[in-house]
Structures are given as structure tokens and as C-alpha cells.
Design goal:
The protein is about 40% helix and about 25% strand. The chain is of the alpha+beta class. It has two domains: about 180 residues, Ribosomal Protein S5, domain 2 (2-Layer Sandwich); about 130 residues, Alpha-Beta Plaits (2-Layer Sandwich). The strands form two sheets. Strands 1, 2, 3, 4, 5, 6, 7, 8 and 13 form a nine-stranded mixed sheet that branches. The radius of gyration is 19 Å and the shape is globular. The N and C termini lie close together (about 10 Å). The relative contact order is 0.19. It binds (3R)-3-hydroxy-3-methyl-5-(phosphonooxy)pentanoic acid (PMV). (3R)-3-hydroxy-3-methyl-5-(phosphonooxy)pentanoic acid binds next to helix 4 and helix 6.
């Protein structure tokens, strides 16, 4: 039996804007998805019989990283809430890739895992998917995805995708974050409402036809570019303020909700800053805080689900 796990991600800056040429800055967080793969005489998923051909996402991963010919018993165990903007499906794709390939005696590079998992994500998101989630789950740490190479950062790989809005090109980079920042607890607040990434990106694509939405999107892009320098300086107060400012801009492009805004208002007195993270509409907020328990209580009081977690250095890995 082979077991692999991969971390969730949270976007600090640049969600949605990354689909329009801006950088997205995302961090791996210590909530992990684990998958184990063992030989079997029929296809089993979490104890039940299943047909990989009618489970398109998993079926595609099984055929990309192995074969549909020999049945497997697959178990999935994830700490990451699904459809919540934390990249649960990307973490599973990347971890599945590593467990399946190792099972079949292959040793894929981190880049190959991220690349194939992105292909599966893109086909599940109607062709509108940046490689942010899959790259962070594969690499761990902090990752910056941009439409061109940023010379001051460590370039990892490039990814191209033809989508419904034309051709996309992204360069994936790693950034090492000073301990002054990476040691700060990360609080996630799940609204309890799921969010559909493909629906949200479609709403934004429609809104982008309106000039006032477009100028807010430009401001998100500018802030995200500026935040790259702020991150290397590592001052949690400055990053927190920029995150809160980013949330106001995301509100203007129509991707927040009352639940997200309420959670943010509730945690701000106890944190350096907070914003929605991921596609929005529902899903989660992220706060950087040195009073994580107070943030967690404030989230619970509003009926949300708190996760007190931290920056995660490790990306996808085999567990023995
Ligand atoms: O909600 P998530 O975790 O799928 O994040 C989506 C981030 C977007 O920028 C909205 C879409 C993307 O593919 O980058």
C-alpha cells in the first residue's frame, strides 16, 4: 500500500486577478489531504465499490498516473473542507498523483505532479483554472503565480492552457517567507456555505465587461504585485493591512458575501488583517493573528467553522 498527502492552500493576494494576468500569492497551510492506494480485485473507494469511468476527476487521475486496467482500493482522508476555497480538490489530485505513480513504480517530479493535476483541475473548472492550487499543494511554502517570470523570485516551471477566454500562460515561482511572518498563526473561518469556483470565475468573467469592475480588478492586480515585496519584508502588520484592503477590492468585483464580510468584521479586532480566500461567494476567510483562539471564538459565535492552522513548509509527500 502507498500513502501520500498534500497540503491545502490559501490565497493571500490575487485570486481571480491571476486569471487576468496579475500575480497570485498563495501559501500552503497545515490542513492535509491523504490518499492511500492498494492492490484489489475490484475498484473500491473508501470501502465502497465504484467505477472510475463514471468518476471523471478521479478516473482521469487514475489513467494519467497509472492505468484503469488493474483495480485498486483507494482511501481518501482529508482535513480540508471541500468546495471552500482551500484547494481541497487540488491537494487530492496532487496526492493521488504521487500515491498512484509510486504504486506503479514511477517516480514523477514535483513539476510533473503539479502539471498533470492542473490539467485535471482545468477540465473540472470548464477550462478556467490557474495552476495556483496545484502548484502550492505540490511545492508547499509560498508560491507566486504570474503571467511572466519575476526575476527576483525562484522560477519553478511554466504552464500554458487554452481556455474559453483564449490562451493563458503562467510562471510558477517559490518565495521564502521570513520567520517573522511564517510563524504567525493562520486562522481560517469557513462560512459553512460551499462555493463553486467555476461559477464564481464565470460571474467575474461577465462582470469584467463593466469598466467599474475592471478598475477594481486593476487595483487587486496592483496590490498583489506590491504585496510580493511586502512579503519578503515579513512584517505581519503591513501584510495584514494589505489583506484587509484586498478584501474591500474583492467585494467591489462581486465575489464576497454577507457571511464572509461578517466573519471578517468579527476577526479584525483580534488579527493583523483578514480577507476572503479563494473564489469567494461562500467558502472561507483567512486571518493572520497572534490571538488565534479569540478569532476562532468570534468565528464560532457567528456559526462559522474555525481552523487554527499555520504556514506549511512541506508540499506533497509519500507517507510510509
Ligand atoms: O476557490 P479556489 O480554491 O478554487 O481558488 C480559486 C482561485 C481563482 O483565482 C478564483 C481561480 C483560479 O483558478 O485561480
Amino acid at each position: 500500500m502507498w500513502r501520500a498527502d498534500a497540503p491545502a492552500k490559501a490565497i493571500l493576494f490575487g485570486e481571480h486577478a491571476v486569471l487576468y494576468g496579475a500575480p497570485a500569492i498563495a501559501i500552503a497551510i497545515d490542513l492535509r489531504a491523504t490518499i492511500s492506494v492498494a492492490k484489489s480485485n475490484k475498484w473500491i473507494l473508501n470501502g465502497d465499490e465504484f467505477d472510475p469511468k463514471v468518476n471523471p476527476h478521479l478516473g482521469q487521475l487514475i489513467s494519467e498516473f497509472g492505468t484503469l486496467q488493474s483495480p485498486l482500493s483507494i482511501s481518501i482522508d482529508s482535513e480540508i473542507p471541500m468546495a471552500a476555497g482551500l484547494g481541497s480538490s487540488a491537494a487530492l489530485s496532487v496526492a493521488s498523483g504521487l500515491a498512484l505513480s509510486t504504486f506503479h513504480g514511477r517516480n514523477p517530479s514535483t513539476e510533473t505532479l503539479a502539471r498533470i493535476a492542473h490539467k485535471a483541475e482545468a477540465s473540472a473548472q470548464g477550462g478556467r483554472a490557474s495552476p495556483t492550487d496545484t502548484s502550492v499543494s505540490a511545492l508547499g511554502g509560498a508560491v507566486i503565480v504570474n503571467s511572466s517570470i519575476i526575476k527576483s523570485l525562484q522560477h519553478r516551471w511554466s504552464i500554458d492552457l487554452d481556455g474559453p477566454d483564449g490562451h493563458n500562460h503562467w510562471d510558477v515561482h517559490s518565495l521564502s517567507i521570513p520567520t517573522s511572518l511564517s510563524s504567525i498563526p493562520v486562522v481560517i473561518g469557513f462560512t459553512g456555505k460551499s462555493s463553486s469556483t467555476s461559477e464564481m470565475v464565470e460571474i467575474v468573467a461577465k462582470n469584467m465587461k463593466n469598466p467599474s469592475f475592471r478598475s477594481s480588478m486593476d487595483a487587486v492586480s496592483e496590490l498583489s504585485s506590491h504585496a510580493i515585496n511586502l512579503l519578503s519584508e515579513g512584517d505581519p502588520k503591513v501584510i495584514g493591512e494589505a489583506m484587509t484592503q484586498c478584501h474591500s477590492l474583492l467585494k467591489n468585483i462581486g465575489v464576497s458575501s454577507k457571511e464572509l464580510d461578517d466573519l471578517i468584521e468579527a476577526v479584525l479586532p483580534f488579527s493583523f488583517g483578514a480577507k476572503l480566500t479563494g473564489a469567494g461567494g461562500g467558502g472561507c476567510i483567512i486571518a493572520l493573528s497572534d490571538k488565534p483562539e479569540e478569532c476562532a471564538d468570534a468565528i464560532k459565535e457567528l456559526g462559522g467553522v474555525p481552523y487554527v492552522t499555520s504556514f506549511a513548509e512541506n508540499g506533497v509527500e509519500i507517507l510510509t
